[in-house]
Amino acid sequence: MFHLPFGECTFTLDDVSLQIGLQIDGNVITGPIVSAGWSATCEQLLGNVPNRFRGSQIEMRWLYDNFQTIKASTSDVEKEQFARTFILRLIGGLLMADKFCNLVHLKWLLQLVNLREAGRLSWRSAVLATLYQEMCLAMIPRKN
User: What sections of the protein cross the membrane (predicted)?
Assistant: First the structure.
C-alpha cells in the first residue's frame, strides 16, 4: 500500500491488465543481469551503439533520434533490430519508465534477443514489479 498526500492506493496485476492488457502467463522475467559489454550487446541487437551510456541505461532520446524510420529495402536482420528498438522505446517510455521517462535499462534489451520468446514472457508481472519499485523510490522523503 502506498500512502500518498491524497490517500492510499495499491496496484494489482488486474490493474496492470486493465490498463495495458499484457499477459501474465509465461516465464517470469527474473535473475541477475550480467553483460560483458553493453556496447557489444547494442551492436548485435540494435545494429548501432550509443555514443554514451549512463551505467547500464541509455537515453530514450538516443533511441528516438537513431531509429525514426525504416526503409522498405532493409534486411530481415535490420527489421528485427528496428523492432527491438521500438519495443525498447515502449518499455522505457510507457511500461517500465523511470520517473523522468528519459532512460531505459538495457536489461530489457536482453529479454528481446529472441523476439518470439519475448512474446511468451510474463511482462505484466515485470511491469507491476517495476511500478512498485518506482513508487517506493518516489515516496522516499527528501532529506534537508
Answer: none
What span, in angstroms and rounded, lies between the C-alpha atoms of 90 and 100? 14
101 backbone φψ class: left, alpha, beta (φ>0; ψ -120 to 50): left
Q: Alpha-carbon distance 108 to 93, whole Å?
A: 12
Rounded to whole angstroms, the Cα distance separating 133 from 116 reads 27
User: For residues 27 and 123, what is the distance between their CA atoms, to the nearest angstrom?
Assistant: 9
| Ranges assigned E (strand) in the chain | 2-4, 7-9, 57-59, 103-105
Domain boundaries, the chain: 1-29+121-139, 37-116
Looking at the chain, the whole-number percentage of residues with pLDDT higher than 90 is 22
Q: What is the pTM of this model?
A: 0.76
